[in-house]
Amino acid sequence: MRLGVNALFYLPGEVGGSETYLLETLRALACRKDAPELVLFANRENAGPLRAEFPRAEMVESGVAATNRFARILAEQIQLPKWVKISRVDVLWSPGYTAPAFCACPQVVSLLDMQYKRFPEDVSWLAARTMDVLYPLAARRSDAVVAISEFSKSEVVRFIGISPEKIAVTLLATDADFGVPAGPPPAEVRGAPYLLCVAHTYPHKNVALLVRAFSRITADIPHRLVLVGKARYGEPEVLAALRDSPPGRVIRFPDLSRPELIALYQGADWFVFPSLYEGFGLPVLEAMVAGAPVLTTREASLPEIGGEAVCYADGRDEASFAAALRTAIALPQGQRAQLVEQAKKRAEGFTWDSSADKLWNVLAIAAARHA
Question: Does pTM top 0.85 for this prediction?
Fold first, then answer.
């Protein structure tokens, strides 16, 4: 099978879990015995990294800048169908929410969540209106839709109105490297126990509430709070919370290398993830594999990932979350170790091979319908 991959959306280092989803899925597909011939439709920023990662793939370089949303959308709707036809692909997979309205081959699109509907403050007004057009268009024009959790499937059904039968669920996974003993964490966090949160500061990530809840209990604990993530629309609220927090108790890293991030996970006393909306929740799974006990919320897809192997708190109530933090930190070592072991065992059920197998079946069925 010649599999076309619409990677025009992919801006390296800037699209969060979508980047992990794209790259890990392609790696797993490339390792299959019946591996597809990959045809990657790339943009100006990702052509080099994709060529280095997948040297055997056929590369179609668009020259379009992913940072120019308008130009990218035009290229996707007008130019991409032409490139697909010339490349003679059997099926086109669009892993980043949007896809061409018209295409010479079968299409499958991945809709990872409907976050902008639940949290419109996460995006600009123009971006939201663009999504209002492009997401339903992609879902309806494609032969199949892929969601990454049962929750995200239900969101697509609710907000776009397509049949649940058209949507396949392929759960995500994380790299086994998160469970391989790493070196020490960055020097800035050594010397005292710490709580870790990995999240860009979108409003739905709820980082400001975490800072405020942490500030309520700092007098009673030795821990510091380590925040890893870039500034986004919720940054002003986070900065306001930080101004009111005890000095020197919160450490921020806008970005880290992969080994540094893994070391941070493995060294954390607790991984704390107060998010109010996730299509999947990769950081929770990464922490589970790394051996950090997890405190998160029961919002959205998170209970699907954590099950009974993580602890939960009310992410909509600051005082309640602070109390849950205090309880988690005071958990006896034996119970903590048991929780970590349960989490590691549960995480074994999430693999990229399994995810890619399910996607492969969806792609094959779509291609066969038009054969």
Answer: yes
